[in-house]
Amino acid sequence: MKLSGKITKVLPLQEGTSQQGATWRKQTIVVLEDDPQVPFPNEVAFDLFNDRIPETALTVGQHVDVHFSIRTREYNGRIYNDINVVRI
Known about the structure:
The protein is mainly β. It contains no helices and six strands. Strands 1, 2, 3, 4, 5 and 6 form a six-stranded antiparallel β-sheet that branches.
């Protein structure tokens, strides 16, 4: 799937180590879609992991084309959606 729009928020980079000892990095960005066919554009939060985080900093106001995948999972009886960037 693909969404084009303007970055409205760039959250701080998060880093950690998994239980298996692997290091990970995660950054969340919020993009306001700019499709002229949509009367009320949505803001969508995307997660970028590890090598999907670009070397150059993402900035508020920057126009981006985000290719993403959606994954749904259940935890403690609740349903969660994860929107992960494939390419930006």
